[in-house]
Each structure stands twice: as structure tokens, then as C-alpha cells.
Write a structure and sequence with these properties.
By secondary structure, this protein is of the alpha+beta class. It contains 8 helices and 25 strands. The strands form 5 sheets. Strands 7, 8, 9, 11, 12, 13, 15 and 16 form an 8-stranded antiparallel beta sheet that branches. It is globular.
Length: about 450
């Protein structure tokens, strides 16, 4: 494994990315090749894969086994659950979510891509763009993933022909652009042979763009959520009531976005009560300011009624509260979602009763047309819903905040997750079409 010092790791940026694609497009093989060729595999891991491959009669190590950890996955040669992997190069650290390709496991792709800054969508060069490819592109667009990589895999099985790659790249890019995907980078690869994964391929001299790893290492990512709307979902109220801290009352949670400062006027939602931040405790020590992803305890100057599920926000930048939520959803449960369905809606740390008032439309993936008022959404359907909640909720638009603009619907009977929802408009507006760069492929 490559040697990377602690100092080097602290200086590198972090990229969260997910892989997606149809069944047998080679996602797990790509990930295995990426880990293997970037020297991110421990010796004992590689030896275990070699033994497992030999027991199945394979002469070469099956790199897909580096990510397909479930016994059912190895027996069937498919990915079922989301496999998370952590690795690093001298230029960047990575958190990878390898998601399943089967239609019935689309819900896992939603989970894996929900926090990703980049999604790699694989396409088998022999099959081209299929329905599941469109579904994964639509989910990436719905989740507002900033960067999409189209990896046209198994180029070795089509003779490394440029025209095959060009046709697939053009079709996928046109579809993704209609969805409003801001950036698509197309790369021809062979995960099995290692072409254009970590090392540039000598068999495709017509391609002048980056390898997959080069693109992952250099794509610009922004973690500067400190300038977004400041939001602190309250997870727990801390009251020690000890001799040393008889009057201590703190409101603990992880800052979802933005930053908070001592002395700042804040509002507690949904009650609307206001106060001033008297103190912020971070890891047991007082600080003057705290920002996104830090877990803190906030102390208020006034004795305000605050409990789990409330949202602390700056008074000058408070979202409106509403009981009528309109959103785009991906239905992930086997049981259908219907008009009149009584559910629980979980938003941040708050869970309230709700009812599905209307399903205005369902998206047809083939041509992106809308089927009006379907009345129901089946598993893996994408559609618009109108929901009435029993209590007001302070929701942001998903376009403004992926954290506080998202929610899930839960079956109140057994706790099953039914639907993943994004508040506001379905897709981003398509980017203006510009002339392609003839020097290399970069759709």
C-alpha cells in the first residue's frame, strides 16, 4: 500500500463519490481496479481475494470481490448493498459508495448518492444507454449531484472503437442535459483490463481526456457550506443538574450548514421564539464560532422552550414554516405510495404525522414526460407529491440545502422507509449548450 503521511492527508481535500449503473456493467470491477492500481489495497485483502478467486476456478484475481462483501453478492456475482470504501492518494482523500445495479435495489443508489459530490455512471459499451442508466441519471439530477462521470466500460469487447464510445456519450449527455445535470465527463474504459482507470490506455490513442482517477483527483469540489443558510437541528437537550452545573441548559446537535457565533440573535423553529447565543461548547471547550458538520452544544441567553426536533436558525435568515410540502420523491418501498396514504415525515431530527394529499405527476424515464395524476407511485418510481403535515415544518428548498431540504416518509406501522423526498423544483434548469472541445472528450 502506498505510504501517505498524516501531514499529507490533512492537506488534501475530501471527495465523496458514488458508482452506479445497470447490472453487470462492471461497477465493482471498476472500484476494485481503482483500489488495486492506486495501491490502496492491503496485502491481506488482496491475498483473501486471490484465494476466493482461486476457489472459484479463476486464474486471475477477481477485483470485484474487493467490494462485493456479502456472501449472496459473491455467489451471484452482483452488488446488493451499498459498499463503502475509504482510500487516499497523495492528491486527495475519497469516500466511495459502490451502489447496486438491479432495479429492485435502486433505493440503495439513492442512499449512496445522497451525500455524493460526484457520481460515476457506468454503461456497458455493448448495450449502450438502458432504462436503468436513465434512472440513475435522473436520480443524480434529482439529488443535485454537481458532477457526473459517464464511464463507458468494456471497451475491450467492442474493439476499442471510437464511434461506439462517441454514440453512447452523445446519447447520455443529451439526456443528462435535459435533466439539468450541470457537468458530464465521458471516459472510455475497460475496468477488467485497466484501460483509462488509473493508467492511460495505449489502445485508445484517439482519446485525449483524463483517466478516471485523474478526474477524481482534480475535479473541483466545494465543502464551503459555511456560507449557506445556517441551520442547527436540535438532537438532544443537555441538563446535568449537578452541583457544579445546576443551571446548565444546552442544546446539542450537528450543524447542518452555515455557521453560528456567540452573541448572534437566533430563532427557534417551529415555535418562532427568539433569543441570543450566550455560549457555544465544542468538545467540552467554549468557542466563539462554530460551523458546518461540527457537533456542538449551544447555550441561549433566555429560558426558551427548546426540545429535540426543533431547528435553531439566525433570526435574519429564518426559513418559512409550512404544513403543505410539495416535493419530488423517489419511492423506495415495495408497497405503493397512494393518495390518502398516512405516513410519518422525518425532516432533520423532527418526525411528524402527515398525509399524502396528491400525486400530481409521475416521471416517464424514457422521454422525461410527465404522466399526470397517476394516483400511486410504485417501487423506484419518481414523481411529484403534495403532503400535508400535522405540525408546521421549517423546510428549505432542496436546491438551497441538500440537508434541510430533504426528508423521508416512513410507514407508521412498522417503521419502513417508504420514500425519499426533495423539497421544491424537480430538476435544475438545463445549462446553455456550448460547442464541444474537439481536442478531447469532455461532454
Amino acid at each position: 500500500m502506498s505510504t501517505i503521511t498524516t501531514e499529507a492527508l490533512s492537506a488534501t481535500t475530501l471527495l465523496r463519490f458514488a458508482t452506479a449503473g445497470s447490472v453487470d456493467d462492471g461497477k465493482s470491477t471498476l472500484v476494485g481496479r481503482l483500489l488495486h492500481d492506486s495501491k490502496s489495497v492491503l496485502v491481506d485483502q488482496l491475498e483473501a481475494v486471490e484465494r476466493a478467486s482461486a476457489s472459484r476456478g479463476q486464474e486471475a484475481p477477481d477485483l470485484a470481490l474487493l467490494t462485493d462483501g456479502l456472501r449472496a453478492e459473491r455467489e451471484q456475482g452482483i452488488t446488493i448493498d451499498v459498499a463503502y470504501r475509504y482510500f487516499a492518494t497523495p492528491r486527495r482523500r475519497f469516500i466511495l459508495a459502490d451502489t447496486p445495479g438491479h432495479v429492485q435495489y435502486t433505493r440503495n443508489m439513492v442512499t449512496g448518492a445522497s451525500t455524493a459530490e460526484l457520481t460515476v455512471v457506468l454503461v456497458d459499451a455493448r448495450n449502450g444507454v438502458v432504462e436503468q442508466t436513465r434512472r440513475h441519471a435522473a436520480i443524480a439530477a434529482l439529488l443535485r449531484v454537481p458532477h457526473v462521470v459517464l464511464a463507458v466500460n468494456k471497451m475491450d469487447l467492442v474493439g476499442y472503437e471510437e464511434r461506439v464510445f462517441a454514440a453512447i456519450a452523445e446519447e447520455f449527455t443529451a439526456y443528462a442535459t435535459e435533466l439539468g445535470v450541470p457537468e458530464v465527463t465521458a471516459i472510455p474504459i475497460s475496468a477488467l483490463a485497466g484501460d483509462n482507470v488509473v493508467d492511460a490506455s495505449a489502445r485508445m490513442d484517439w482519446y485525449g481526456g483524463p483517466t478516471v482517477l485523474e478526474h477524481l483527483e482534480t475535479v473541483p469540489v466545494s465543502h464551503d457550506l459555511a456560507h449557506c443558510h445556517a441551520r442547527l437541528p436540535v438532537q438532544y437537550v443537555i441538563r446535568p443538574q449537578t452541583a457544579d452545573l445546576p443551571d446548565y441548559r444546552g442544546y446539542a446537535g450537528q450543524i447542518a450548514s452555515g455557521s453560528f457565533r456567540v452573541g448572534e440573535e437566533v430563532t427557534v423553529l417551529p415555535s418562532g421564539r427568539t433569543s441570543t447565543i450566550a455560549g457555544i461548547d465544542l468538545l467540552g471547550e467554549p468557542v466563539d464560532v462554530a460551523w458546518t458538520t461540527q457537533s456542538v452544544t449551544v447555550l441561549l441567553a433566555d429560558d426558551v422552550d427548546v426540545s429535540r426536533g426543533d431547528l435553531i436558525v439566525p433570526s435574519k435568515d429564518a426559513p418559512a414554516t409550512t404544513q403543505d410540502v410539495e416535493a419530488t420523491v423517489c419511492h423506495v418501498a415495495d408497497q405503493p405510495l397512494t393518495v390518502g396514504h398516512r405516513v410519518l415525515l422525518k425532516h432533520g431530527t423532527r418526525t411528524v404525522k402527515a398525509i399524502v394529499k396528491d400525486i400530481p405527476s409521475r416521471l416517464t424515464l424514457a422521454d422525461l414526460s410527465l404522466h399526470p395524476h397517476p394516483g400511486t407511485l410504485a417501487a423506484n418510481d419518481i414523481g411529484r407529491v403534495k403532503i400535508r403535515t400535522a405540525e408546521p415544518l421549517p423546510v428549505d428548498s432542496y436546491a438551497d440545502s441538500r440537508r434541510t431540504g430533504s426528508f423521508i416518509l416512513i410507514d407508521p406501522g412498522d417503521g419502513t422507509t417508504l420514500t425519499a423526498g426533495m423539497v421544491g423544483e424537480s430538476f435544475a434548469a438545463p445549462e446553455p449548450v456550448t460547442d464541444a472541445d474537439d481536442d478531447g472528450w469532455d461532454f
